[in-house]
Specification:
CATH architecture of the largest domain: Alpha-Beta Complex
Number of strands: 14
Structural class: alpha+beta
CATH topology of the largest domain: Phosphoribosyl-aminoimidazole Synthetase, Chain A, domain 2
Radius of gyration: 19 Å
Low-confidence stretches: none
Order of helices and strands: HEEEEHEHEEEHHEHEHEHEEE
Distance between the termini: 24 Å
Number of domains: 2
Strand content: 25-35%
Amino acid sequence: MKIGMSHGAGGEIMQDLISDIILGNIKNKKVNGGVGLDELDDGASIPFGEYEIIISTDSHTIHPIFFPGGDIGKISMAGTINDVSVMGSKPLAIASAMVLSEGFLSEDLTKIVKSMDAVSREVDVAIVTGDTKVMEKDKLDKLIITTTGIGIVKKGEVKRDSNLKVGDQIILTGSVGDHGIALMSYREGFGFETDLKSDVAPVWGMVKAALDVGGVDAMKDPTRGGIANALNELASKSGVGMLIDEDRIPLKREVVAASEMLGIDPYEVANEGKVIMGVEKNKTEEILQAIRSTKYGKEAQIIGEVTQDRHVILDTIVGGKRILEEPIADPVPRVC
């Protein structure tokens, strides 16, 4: 088998690659008592006395490296901070490694590092260590950044994405498809008359607001594969189903128009500043209001509930119901 672009696109094909080749050939995959590689959560945990250290790592190959609403520096910081955050932990620090192509402009690198610093200061997460390498010209497409995030949470309070319970309400913190559609429109030069920008942003403020209320059972940030992938992964790992009200899913009109023109399902498109939460029913309204009071959570909605069914069912806008399938891959490659 030869590796293709779809193997890194966050859907079923990527999951098969991870299961067959990566998990199948690594035997030592967790620290005793912690969340390990087998769980395929957004991060892992290392027990440490009365706490658990959360660790998550991500490599960023986004193209182009500058896009409406952000750049590779911003997404490398926010993306890893978000993975640590949705595990229920306070993000503390980032390690960053850069691989640059020979001839890369120092002016562009300066902009990217400043973007990383801005996110770092916004969430009070220090960039504590790193590494820099340069490859020969034409051997690398400009720049790759790998970030590893560290967070901390009290022992037993890690939010695993396998912890949904029947009756939980599903909260989505904002509109979907913004990142992937904005990136693709800009990259391919479609010239849509729109000011649509990527939603790339750190989600810790929204997560903390929800955690402070209590009653959060599971969380996931719907990146590659979009909400279709994230909802299915949450349901599958938890052994439950969902009934989602399509009319409540926030969608910008620009995303709808561009998706229809391009033949793309916006539910399968990556987001970089949103969270899906499964929360206890009696806490739902309080959590929703707490999220809406934060910088990035004003569009948050309750979009459905957890059921005993083993499928994610979409109660459609036009009437009737359909299964929201797990995507094969994200229709927009190299989005993060």
